[in-house]
Write a structure and sequence with these properties.
By secondary structure, the protein is of the alpha+beta class. A 5-stranded antiparallel β-sheet has the order 1-2-3-5-4, with helices on one face.
């Protein structure tokens, strides 16, 4: 039992070997602690995403945190499903790998979506941005229930930046080198919307999210009371807006994947959800 007692939350030695169930097909992302692959479940034929983490003893804290977040939050409709954790043993203990198997999200990033729509001359209205941000804040509100090592209001800042990108097509300082932008953020005043001054609610929402003083920045549960997100909650239950997003997705799909065949059997459905209490 190589990993007995290593983790309080995961019985690593009892995990199944993934090699007979999943076939890795393509590297689609890299991070600090691992790589993410497009993979296929050979038993069902379904496509999944698999995050592979190595150096298990050295990274056990990060592994446990990743596992607990996925296990506790993947039941939320706005978060990709978590299908399980597997252990791939190597020839030596340092070659062992943990495979986090998750739902494959094929819609691309916010940047991909916005840029694709810009190329087709399509822009998002304030109502449509409210619809997107409402679902995003629900996710952050769930995250606050976990004992995280950082203040969840850091995510509120990220949400404000996302709102600007949705409205204008590019995030603030996108014309700068990433390292230069990193130094500019703490020195400059908070970013603001520059092109959509007619969107009063959206402008106010961005200003609330991008308060530089952390103590003045709202938590997600407080932000859900903002008029923009109340509008988003109402719109989330209207089938006409749901159909609008289905059309937007199909436009984006044709543009972004027009030279790819691997997405041909992947479909995304948008549906109105019941109003939260």
């Amino acid at each position: 039992m190589a990993y007995r007692g290593l983790s309080r939350h995961i019985n690593i030695d009892s995990l199944r070997d993934p090699r007979n169930k999943f076939k890795l097909q393509e590297l689609i992302g890299e991070g600090t602690y691992g790589e993410v692959y497009w993979a296929k479940d050979v038993e069902t034929g379904d496509h999944v995403a698999i995050k592979i983490m190595e150096n298990i003893p050295e990274n056990i804290e990060e592994i446990e945190e990743e596992y607990l977040v996925l296990k506790d939050l993947s039941v939320h409709p706005n978060i990709p499903s978590f299908y399980g954790l597997y252990l791939r043993r190597g020839g030596q203990p340092e070659e062992d790998q943990l495979w986090f198997v998750m739902e494959l999200c094929t819609g691309g990033s916010v940047t991909d979506l916005v840029q694709g729509m810009k190329k087709r001359g399509v822009s998002l209205s304030e109502d449509q941005i409210a619809y997107i941000l409402y679902g995003t804040v629900q996710v952050i509100a769930c995250e606050q229930q976990l004992d995280m090592s950082y203040d969840a209001r850091c995510d509120i800042w990220s949400l404000g930046i996302t709102a600007i990108e949705l409205a204008e097509g590019d995030p603030p300082l996108s014309d700068l080198h990433p390292m230069r932008a990193l130094f500019q953020i703490p020195r400059n005043p908070p970013p603001q919307l520059t092109k959509r001054f007619d969107c009063v609610l959206l402008c106010d929402f961005v200003n609330e999210c991008l308060r530089k003083d952390l103590e003045e920045r709202p938590f997600a549960k407080e932000l859900l009371r903002h008029p923009l997100l109340k509008k988003g909650a109402q719109l989330a239950h209207q089938s006409d807006l749901t159909m609008t997003f289905q059309i937007f997705y199909e436009q984006y799909r044709m543009l972004y994947f027009e030279h790819s065949t691997r997405f041909n059997d992947v479909k995304v459905e948008f549906s109105a959800q019941t109003e939260p209490t």
